[in-house]
Amino acid sequence: GGLKGGLSAGGDWYGEDDKPTSGHRDGSAGAVSALWALARDGKLAEIDEKLSQVGDGASAAVNAADASGRTALYWAADRGHDTVVSRLLQNGAEVDVQADDGQTALHCAIVCEFGAVVDLLLQAGASTAIEDEDGETPLTLAQEMLGEEDPISTRVAAAAAAVTTAAVSTD
């Protein structure tokens, strides 16, 4: 599990047993469950077409997951498709969904150093405190992998501090 095995930006870190399959956790078929594959491949026009077909079911469509719990948002973040991330968020993508390994879209965007995607996810309220199966949060991943002075790390730390400040001021 985890992403700390020397992943390079845009690299494929899936072992043979971890590759996405055609199985879909929500048990659906067709237009809804194919969305994560389109997001993985950055196919914005096809995503727009699928979303127009499902109409009021757009939120369910964007939040459908593959067999490993990876949603369209997760895949778009993992591959650095910022326009796709934006469109999915506009259509009700849940920002903090965890895949089977505990990773969120924000974990992926940080590890792959996709700053524009990190910014979109933080603006959408992504948590910097969700732990994956290795106990890593987006904040700890950013600081450990990129260093505390890295621009992505400083933005993630600022988002974490803003949440902490807000929590303190409401108590």
Query: Helix share of residues?
Result: 40-55%
Q: What profile does the largest beta sheet have?
A: none
Q: Shape, please?
A: globular
**Oligomeric grouping of the chains:** single chain
Structural class: mainly alpha
For the record, give the distance between the C-alpha atoms at the N and C termini, rounded to a whole number: 37 Å
User: What pattern of helices and strands is seen along the backbone?
Assistant: HHHHHHHHH
Q: Radius of gyration over alpha carbons? A: 16 Å
Helix tally equals 9
- Average pLDDT number: 84
Kindly estimate the percentage of residues that lie in beta strands according to DSSP: under 5%
Q: How many strands in all? A: 0
Low-confidence stretches: 1-32
Topology:
Layout: H1 35-40, H2 44-54, H3 58-63, H4 72-79, H5 82-90, H6 105-111, H7 115-123, H8 138-146, H9 151-170
